[in-house]
Design goal:
By secondary structure, the protein is of the alpha+beta class. Helices cover 36% and strands 20% of the residues.
Length: 405
């Protein structure tokens, strides 16, 4: 069964160039959900045991560490920290400041959260975390000209703990920390490898409980988009309209919006123009991509294109919509357990030549707590950008389309 994230970007530029982009979310056992756009929801679904979700994710990560023969990992990415432990704290701030990190051993001995100053109490109720310690912020902003000494202090503390838990010379996965800190840690004799592969592989396969979290996040985001649509009218600025989505997401206990992809009229082509102060005119198209990190921290990645009225969409706009709709549904129907990424690319919908240059850069991509592995490329791009693999049970994918000259 299938969950649809219809990313329908109908793009118009000076009446000369138009386009549509779509995304669909698919996983092996999702069911289509409709008729719930205007329902009030609370992200606390009584059927979801979030402690079970946390334990599953930690187990998945440890299994991938074992598969890659990694004794311990030190994670800095706030999304990965949340995945492995459930610990959430100032995620946007920590996406650019190395102010908290998580040490996870492959065995069951330790999950140590190094938390930001004054925040150690936030993980008190997390059964996945064995210990919370104060973090050493390894950044020039925090240390100034003493940054090298700060990096050495950080490395000494982490190395001492790693030696105690996994022994000297162990293979240690690490990610997203400044080069000086990595160099300092490498001096203690560990084999340092990139932690991205095991954490991304772990995140790619969802449990039934995770799927329920995804659905809750999607439903809340659908409500937010429905409220945005109800407010859409000529004379409103893009920013004013975009703010409605943010308000509704936060009110439903979602986390944040990763991008600001809402544009109108001529600004919808080319795609990826960000929301601005432009005032929406009559009978214009308004295109958005949610990119919401929503309820339970799960990604609601879908798009919509609306018409500002008062008239109906014209024939050209409908033709573009129909092409994107055809692409989305053709490619969605290809997906099944065991399908090779290369085979998907070869069998995917052929983009007409007049739309090819403006195609979306991916044909599909994984989605969970954010966009994630795997990336599925168009057939024409597979030789230069693609890689092989297989669709697996438990994956959740967004299927993409951009139709525009």
């Amino acid at each position: 069964m299938v969950t649809l994230h219809s990313n329908l970007f109908i793009i118009l530029s000076n009446g000369l160039s138009s386009g549509i982009s779509m995304e669909l979310d698919w996983h092996s056992d999702a069911q289509a959900y409709r008729d719930r756009l205007l329902l009030d929801v609370n992200d606390v679904d009584p059927s979801i045991d979030i402690a079970v979700v946390r334990r599953y994710r930690l187990q998945r990560f440890r299994a991938e560490m074992a598969r890659h023969d990694i004794g311990a990992c030190v994670l800095f990415d706030p999304v990965n920290i949340r995945y492995a432990s459930g610990a959430r704290n100032m995620q946007i701030f920590n996406a650019r400041n190395p102010a908290r990190y998580l040490l996870v051993t492959q065995d069951q001995s330790a999950v140590i959260l190094y938390e930001f100053t004054g925040c150690m109490h936030l993980a008190d109720d997390l059964e996945t975390v064995t210990e919370v310690r104060p973090a050493i912020t390894v950044s020039f902003v925090a240390a100034g000209d003493e940054i090298k000494r700060r990096e050495m202090d950080w490395a000494a503390e982490v190395a001492s703990t790693l030696t105690e838990l996994v022994g000297k010379g162990a293979t240690v996965g690490i990610e997203r920390i400044n080069a000086g800190a990595v160099q300092a840690l490498s001096g203690y004799g560990f084999l340092l490898v990139d932690a991205q592969q095991p954490i991304e592989r772990a995140r790619a396969i969802k449990s039934q409980e995770e799927v329920a979290c995804v659905k809750a996040s999607l439903q809340a985001t659908e409500i937010a988009v429905a409220r945005l649509r109800q407010s859409l009218r000529p004379g409103l600025s893009e920013n004013a309209l975009w703010s409605i989505l943010h308000q509704a997401v936060i009110a439903q206990n979602g986390d944040y919006v990763e991008t600001r992809l809402l544009s109108s009229g001529q600004r919808t082509n080319p795609w990826f123009q960000e929301s601005g102060n432009r005032v929406i005119g009559k009978n214009e198209l308004v295109a958005l991509d949610t990119d919401v990190v929503g309820c339970y921290g799960y990604y609601a990645d879908f798009s919509r294109t609306f018409h500002s009225g008062p008239d109906e969409p014209n024939a050209d706009q409908r033709q573009l919509y129909a092409a994107a709709y055809e692409q989305i549904h053709h490619n969605m129907e290809l997906l099944h357990h065991g399908l090779a990424f290369r085979e998907y690319a070869e069998r995917a919908w052929t983009i007409p030549e007049k739309y090819f240059v403006n195609r979306y850069y991916l044909s599909a991509h994984g989605v969970g707590m954010t966009g994630e592995y795997p990336y599925l490329y168009h057939g024409a791009d597979f030789l230069t950008a693609g890689y092989d693999g297989h669709i697996e049970v438990g994956m959740t994918l967004c299927v993409e389309s951009y139709i525009g000259e």
